[in-house]
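User: Predict structure, ligand nicotinamide-adenine-dinucleotide.
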Amino acid sequence: MAIRIGVIGGGVFGETHMQTFAQAQREGRCELVALAELNEELLAKRHEQFGVRTYTDYREMLAKEELDGVTVVTPDHTHRPIVVAAMKAGCHVLVEKPMDVTVEGCEAMIAAAREADRLLEVDFHKRYDAYHIALREAVTAGKLGRPLYGYAWMENRVEVPRDWWPGWAVKSSPAWFLGAHMVDLFRWLIGGPRGRRVYASGAKHKLKSLGVDTFDCVQAKIDFDNGASLSLDTSWVLPEGFEAVVNQGIRVVGTEGIAEIDSQNRGAEACFAGKTQETMNLGFKLHGQDKWGRPRYTGYGFEAIADLIENIAYLKSGGKIADLQGKYPDGLDGLENTRILCAIHESIATGKLVELEK
Ligand SMILES: NC(=O)c1ccc[n+]([C@@H]2O[C@H](COP(=O)([O-])OP(=O)(O)OC[C@H]3O[C@@H](n4cnc5c(N)ncnc54)[C@H](O)[C@@H]3O)[C@@H](O)[C@H]2O)c1
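Assistant: Predicted complex:
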C-alpha cells in the first residue's frame, strides 16, 4: 500500500521536502509522485533532480493525482488556501511553519481538516532534535521540578532575508520565521501551555536600508497560563562573517533544576582555507552518502518531514487521528503558535502589553 506524496512549493525548503521523500521512496516507505510550483524554471530543475510529474497549478495536481499526503512549502502568507484545498481533495497535510500568519487562517485549516477527517501536521522540527527530546524527557520526568522560566534565541545571518527571498521577507519577520520554532519548542518542552500575555519590541534599521522593509530583530517576553515565562530574542541581520547561517539555543530553569542547550554549536567547529570560522550543526541536515554513493540525508530537519509518512502509514493501517494526538505537532499547536506570534506583532505595533484570551 504505497503512500503517495505530492509537494507544493519547490523553493529553498521545498527541495529539502523532496529530498526527504525521495530518500523514503528508495527505502520503500512512500512514493514521491508530483510537485506543484509556480516558477516554471524551478519546476523543470526539480523534475530533472527528482523525476516527478510537475504542475504549475496545485489545484490541477490535487485533481489529477491520487495523493495520500501533501506538504505545503510555499511562503507563510500563502499556506491557507492551499492547505484547505488539499484537505478538500482528501489529503493528509504537513504545512511549513508558521502554519499561517493569522489566527483565522489557522482556524480555517483546522476546520477543513476536521471536516475531511484528515491529519494536519505542522513542521516544528525542533521537536525532532535529539538534544531537545532528551530535555523534554527530563522535564516530563520532573528532573527540573516545576518549570519557571526559559530563554531562547534564534538568529540568522543577513543573507537569509536579503538574498534568499527578499520578495516575501517583507511579509515575514524574524519572529515569524525563527521565533515560531522557539515558541513551539518551549511550549512542547513544558507540557503545552497556552499563552497568557505578551510584551514585545522590534527594530527596523539595517534591512530597511537595504530595501527590504522588515524587522531586523524582535524581542519578546511571553507569559504562559501555567505560570511559566519565556524571554525570546530573534534577529536576521548577523554579519556574513558569523560562524553559521543560524545561531540558536534554549535554557530552561525550574524549581529543582536548570538545563541549557546550545542548539547550534554541538562541538563541531572548523576554519577551512579561505573561509572564516564555522560552527556546524550536523544534527539539522547532514547530506551524506550510503555505501553505494547515493545521497543519504539524516538529521531532525528531514525526520520532522518524514514524520508525515509514519503518521499516514498508521492511518492507512486502520489507526485513528485521535490516537496520534500529542505524538506530532498538530493544527492546535500551530494555532497557539500563531496566536502568540500575532500578539507579539500587536505588542510591537501598539507598544503595549497584550493579554491573550483564555
Ligand atoms: N522548517 C524549516 O526549517 C524551514 C526552513 C525554511 C523555510 N521554511 C518555511 O517553508 C516555507 C517556504 O520557504 P522557502 O524558504 O522554501 O521559500 P521559497 O520562496 O524559496 O520557496 C517557496 C516556493 O513556493 C512557490 N509558490 C508560491 N506560491 C505557490 C503556489 N500557489 N503554488 C505552487 N508554488 C508556489 C514559489 O514559487 C517558491 O518557489 C515558508 O513557510 C518558510 O517559513 C521552513
